[in-house]
Batch of 2 targets.
Target 1
Amino acid sequence: MKNLLFLVCLIFSKILSAQNLQPTANKALIQFSINNFEKEKLNVPIYFFGKNSKKEFSTQKNDTQILLPLNDTYLVYSKIAIENYEIIVSNAPNQFYNVLFQFDNTKKNRLFATPLETVVQIKLSDHKNQGSKQVITFVNQNNQKQYKGTTNEDGFLEILLPNHTKYSIHIGATQNYSQIDLPHLPFDKIVKLLQFENELGQLQPSKDSALFNFTYFDLNQKPVKDEIIEIISLKTKKKFISQKTDNNGKTQIKVPIGDVYSLNTKYFKEFATQKVEAKPDLYVLPLNIRFPSSLSWEKQIEEEKKFEIAKEEKWKKMQKEIEEYKSAQEKMEKQRLEKEKKEEDIYFKNLMSEINKKRKEDSLIYLRDSLEAKTTQEKLLKTTKLKEKMAMQIRKHEDSIKVLKDSIRTAKLKMRIEEEKKYLTNKGFKIEQDSALLKAFQRNKHWKNQLLVVDVTGSMYVYLNQFKIWYSSKHNIFPNKMQFVLFNDGDDALKNNVYKKVGTTGGIYFSTTADFVDLETQMTKARQNGGGGDTPENDLEAVIKAIEKCKNYNEVILIADNTSQVRDIELLPKIKKPLRIILCGADFYVNGQYLEIAYKTKGSIHLLREDVDFSSKNLANYEKITIQNRTYMFVNERFFLLSDE
């Protein structure tokens, strides 16, 4: 705090002839002596700063006199001590002052403030209160002039800066880390404490840039090396990329303040958003990321791909066998159809003969009754009754024939399914090895009024055989209680060079009949029009269309291929009904996307030996669940299979 002493000034009307300088009508003569507090004489320059004129006057080391303009108040100081004095000079002519200045000269190597310069003391320390040796640059915001200093080992720096301006503070390579405002206060001293984390790495936050400090852990909480984090501005779409994480899983990114950012890794996009306020401040944002490492994720993807390739090869082999089988069957089909037609013609000819015989007998009976009638009115009544009975019998016989024909068609279809199953089994294909579909329906007999959404792409052939066997044996039990939506992921769009767009991929077929033959016909049509062509499928588009179009159902059941990715997972928020998902091919693992769908719709997953109900589950982040003896972790609204380490 500055020390001001008011001196009693002597004004003489006559001039002392002993002095070298003389007061004038415009200037006062200040004669002075300088001592320390031990009354020893000091030979140092003295500075006189006019508070009104803002001008400064100084003496040489051995001077003892100075002339100063009238009508001003002067701050008097040296640059060896903190003490300062004030002299008021009026506008009277020929003024003379004889004064003594005392300064404490015992403090060596210290800076002392002046009327135009402020002593600025900076203390750098981290959260552990440890200092840091850094080069600090102060940039005058008016003229961009720079002043530099270096903190000591304790993080302390003292520097003299011109006041009445603002400064940007750069620390090391960190630009605009902070700022300081020096008002026009004579002999002022400002102490500024700054937190500066030595362990942050190469980057530091600043007043206009926030610092993200990331630590990447895998699901087993081990630091992950060589990962890259990407931050994207939601306002400008600009991307900020980190360096690779170090051995401790750490990396940094600096971004402008006043924005909202999405956080991304190589395989996990937009896993979080972070708002950085526009108010200038030192934003240091420590964020821990816990996802599978890219290396382990790529390994898992590679294993899944190998599994898919093996399955695809098996399917192609099966497809070839089916084509050979169908080719052989077609050669025999014509003969069989001709034979069956002849047999049917003979059968129905004999049946119609019996019907006509019976009809003739009934006609004779009614004719006899009519002839025996005594009156015209009785004859008319008998004739009318005869016609009505004959019409009823005709309808009854026609219905019987239709039912019989439908039964024959169904029996033939069942026979063909069984023949195909037997043929493929003899060829070495265990088409019911994964009977998850059959087991799921057996365990859940309480499902009523079902809306079934069925993947009919190429890789689902084995499971569709199961489905047809199950439905052919059950459909008479619940007539008109089931509705079907079949999807093939775009009707061979890729073969026709058509881009598959999420939400409008197409290849969706509806069947509201419970008739097994009609369902099989629709299924064949859907499969012939497209087989997918690539791994992802349009599961959710099909579910959404099914829910919109169909009415009067209790359960929505999705029959899906576990090894296929969900092309349109982004549509999940649009589904507001619980989904019962029967997963085919889930003997090795459960696809996390289907777990996510079941969890977020409060539905369920159905596997070979297990049903997983999510209707009342609320999982915490990083909570683990066990399915089929394998452990999955719920991370940021997604499910990840944990390694067996």
Target 2
Amino acid sequence: MASSSFGLNFYITDSSTINMKTSKFQVIVLVTLIVFIIAGVIAFATFKGSASKNQIPPITIWGTFPKAAFDQYVTQINYASPQQMTVKYVQQPPDTFSSSFVAALARGTGPDAILIPADLLLASADKLTPIPYSVLPQRTFMNAYIDEAAVYLSPNGELGIPFITDPLVMYWNRDMYNAAGLVICPDPACSLYWDQFKGFNEKLTVKQDNGTISKSAVALGDFTNVTNAREILGTLFMQLGNPITVENTDGSISSALKPSSTADPVPAVTFFTQFVNPNSENYSWNRSWPASKTAFLAGNLATYFGLASELPDLRAKNPNLNFDIAPLPQVRTGGTKAAYARMYGFSIVKSSPNSNTAYQIISAITAPEYLAKISASMYLPSVSRQVIAAGSSDPYMTVFNQEALVAKTWLDVDPAQSSRILGDMIQSVSSGQKSPAQAVNEADYQYNYILQQAVAPTAIFQPVSWNVAAAGDVPDVNIGQKPSNSTSPFGYFRLTQCDGPTLPPVVASALPTDPTKFQDEYGHMPPYVPCDFRHLMIQAQYLINVMIVLGVLGALIGITYAGFLYIKGDSSDRNKAKDMLPKMFWGFILMLTAWFIVSQIMVWLTGSSAYMSGGSNAGDASSGQQGNSGSQSNSGSASGGTGNGSSSGQPANPGDNSSGSFEGGGGSFGGGGAGGTF
């Protein structure tokens, strides 16, 4: 019995030891298997082929746009795009941007492109290179972007490509309006009019017996404490049809404040200043008040005109403030619907040696699918008509989009200086020193002076020779191929798309000049894409991509199957698994090694990895044709024909000659007779 017991105990102990050892080994194998599977899945999910990395040379962009938002935006694009972009972005203060930019250009250390608001563009316009209309047709440009983008049009091309816009909107205090029994814009598509503030003032502005204002309906009439006063007054001018600045025939920019061929801005000045006139029935504001934004946050101002980007700040500074937004009021009769918006856009620097690369990158990051991302992340309306047309269920974004469609701005040399001139004009009227007409004439003279001092009257939009590798509305960086919006890893697993053999110059010159006809014939925007050696290499890369992914999947399946056999517990299956695992491992290593060697051979054959991005496709602007894409030379570089010349594209009319009024049904704010206009 003892012996039997001893034998039994020995057996149990030995069996437990063996099972314990086996269990530990199985755990190790299982953990290793899981690690391989996870690594394989990550490799497959992020795989884009060897030619997808570092295809585009790096560029430097300066701007006043927030750096954190821009860097995050580029990171998101690189994550989704088959080709990686390297963009060094340097944020500069708006008030010193122009001087820093000029100094850097003088040192030869300037950026390749800039990202600034359009109303800062004029001071730098002579240092920028227009994108010829032969490369980016004016009709394509205006169809793609909101009307405000017309500010970038010049006789020789676009001075920039829009990025994001920040329109002026009307913030209103719900509690104050509700208590007064006033309803603001119940329908999102409704319109507000400036003459309605006569009724708003009567119910919302609260005055003490001594005339002191304790509650205000609206803050207008002064530049010292009315936040965004320059933008508000500019909106009134543009609603009347006055563009504020105009381009002359010699390419210079001058003030349009003094009426000539443009609408008279005097009615807007008269209307604006009535709100600080104690003798006016619309008196609701004075200099004793804090800044209008501060007054609105304190709950003492019913209406605040601020930029869309101010919404998060208003929420953060007073979470208990019950407010909403509405479109800006408009002129009731005549004029044009307009709202100032601060639009940021990319412009290419004339002295940059990387203008072609800069255009490729800018074209890529302003594709509609990416513009939708920056719009969502910054909570601002897009400059893309396509994105706006998609609509939004967000009540605030609905209003923002509505304002973006009527957004306008003007070319300004320095917003700080123009604000000072306009502020002096308003002060001289509100103090009674000058009549509105006199003040406007003096402001026009002063504004003209600073415009002429800042920008030489010789044509600043001179035509330049461009060697650009893209044309039309091309959102893909893979220049030389038909556009593809796919961000899937399988986007590279396709047949090479090209149009046919390289065409002789005589045949190439006969290609359709109309982008629509070209697209109908070839299925994409210009230029014509020849099936050359570079495309053969691209097709080979696609096949390699397919094989490497299939190999990774096969290895994962094999390792998974071997692991399954091993943990089943059967000795024959374990032996089979032990035999399979080393073979699968070394096969996987051999496959990766072969992939690397073949990829390097392809790079050596083509001179560099640039065979995936192609050569130039410069346009023959003089004839309105697109040049051929470059042919492959022995050294592997691709070159194309270049051309320059004038474009037939003309800039959009910066403003019309219509005029409008801020009149009301029962009388005018201008102090005229009942029903009169000013």
